[in-house]
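Narrative of activities, Objective 1.

The group set out to show that a structural description can be obtained from nothing but a protein's sequence at a throughput compatible with the screening campaign. Below is one input-output pair from the validation batch, recorded exactly as produced.
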Amino acid sequence: MRRICSSLLAVVMALSVASCGTLDRPVGPLRLADGALVPAQDPRIRANDAARLEALTEEVGARLSKAQPFSVLALSGGGANGAYGAGVLVGWTERGDRPVFDMVTGVSTGALAAPFAFAGSEWDAQLGQAYTGGGASNLLSWRSLAIFLYPSLFSAGALRKLVEDNVTPDLLQAIAREHAKGRRLLVATTNLDSEETVIWDMGLLASQNDDNSRALFKEVLVASASIPGVFPPVLIAGLQPDLTVVMEMHADGGINSPFLAIPENLSLWTRGPNQPGGGALYVVVNGQVGRNEGVTPGRLTAILMRSYDSMSKASLRTHLATTAAFAQRNGMSLSLAAIPDNVEASSLKFDQKTMSALFDLGRARGRSADGWTHLDLAPSTPAFIPASDLPADQIPEALKLKEPEAKTAALQP
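Output recorded for this entry:
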């Protein structure tokens, strides 16, 4: 799979010089005709929307200030590695102490799992099926190659079908019911036109219960999971302050943030001296946190892959440190689940065998106390979270790193 991905990466770089596939849009924003369909209530929370940001901050802040615990589940990006996080949730249910989260957030593959996690443990079977049923195996198939049609390696057809098959009317109704109770389901995309993270109130969308809102719900999930260069970005109609409608280009929510534990403008929020605080933050990282040391081959593809891996992990650790600081200030606990560092994990390996093995590993970890790292938030605690390894006999055969390159296998294209 690494050889295939490396070859495809080389093809993309070569073809990009010739500007092959494109999305048809003018240099300026494309204004739609009058009567274009937009949601009755705008579900977007944008960086320049001070009123919506303030309202969300006040809502979350008010909950954090109450005596009863407030729990947040944040599901990160990670492509095919999302099978691990799905397994953790199912195993957590089986252990018997999975909370009913006040807020569930998702980025990229985490956005695809978030609706099931928000709807509740009774949707675990559907969550598992979405990641292990084989539907994802066509995402990077040769039949999906579209480099001459889109600015990406693959078309979004298989991704759209995966979302369409799993986001059912029953699931949307369950999300709407939970939203009415005051719980929140948030998904992040990256608006490439404005270079900002856009937070989508998916419960608000599900509650509108019309054809347009249901279609937009699915479009947002596709956009959030559209890895740049792998899948094309998604053009989504957005209502502007002057009440015109323009097409915005949205892509992977993980471009700007690996996960969304708390809205960015709330990251410096601190409870008052007489407010009780408390609650819990749970972050599921569909990937690995630790550094893998080894000699990087001198080939271009290896250098690019190693650079991307290092950059992604550095961003992840920075976001974890920011989240830990927020939790510490506000008397919250912080728990992290991530793929052990000595397990072979590839965000682009969508074959059913590998994803099922990752799901089973996550499920086993979710059942045990070892699946979570509960961080001590004392002032002297370092921000870096050390890597964790699994005993060799607990690693599924399909996920074992090949010796003697156990710690450097990720470097080999």
